[in-house]
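Quick check before the chapter quiz. The format below is the same one you will see on the exam, so make sure you can read both the input and the output lines.
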Amino acid sequence: MVKQRLEGHFRNELLKNNNIWFLKLQVMPMSYTSMPADFLILSEHNKYLVECKECSKKVLVISRLTQIKKMLEFYHKFDNNYAYFLISFWNTNKNNSIYYHIPVDNMWNTINNIDKKSLNMSDFEAYFSKFQVNLNIISNYFI
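Here is the expected output.
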């Protein structure tokens, strides 16, 4: 499955950071309970939620951001809570792909200020270029 590819690469990068603890949040379809994100990450001073979204067609459909309200709630609950979308535009392999690590409030503000149902690569370059990251060093962002 496509999403599991990004989650797997992200998990492998998190394992490289000895200063964090993380948990892959599992979806339980029979419990009818949705998870607020794919990963919960704890560092000594901060807590993070990260939701992974992989775009193999170079488009992110905004309706796929189903966790955004729960992520915003988490982000605003305490001072040291952070929430991010990790977006991947897959291009044949991990190293050829483009990744964005976007704070939930930036994503929320953007999707509420544009009149679009999806975001393409040009939109990401226009709105989120400062959040483009190298997946090989992403675990360094969680301190």
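If your answer matched, good. The chain is about 30% helix and 35% strand.
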